[in-house]
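Example record used in the benchmark description.
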Amino acid sequence: MALLHQPENTMLPKTQTFVPNLLAVILGTLLFVMSVAFVSIPLSLGGHPGDRLGGATPSAFHPS
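Model output (structure tokens):
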């Protein structure tokens, strides 16, 4: 019955806590995924994307 007497433009108490929790979960998930990608991609590539790789020395070059 208390819901019937509230103005139409106010948020319910559950909604007021839901939105910040939702934004916190989205931000936390985004930061976790970005940090995993930032660590795993350079490990699999052997360096950060865009880094120059050292060229082979002339003695290590073996044409086949």
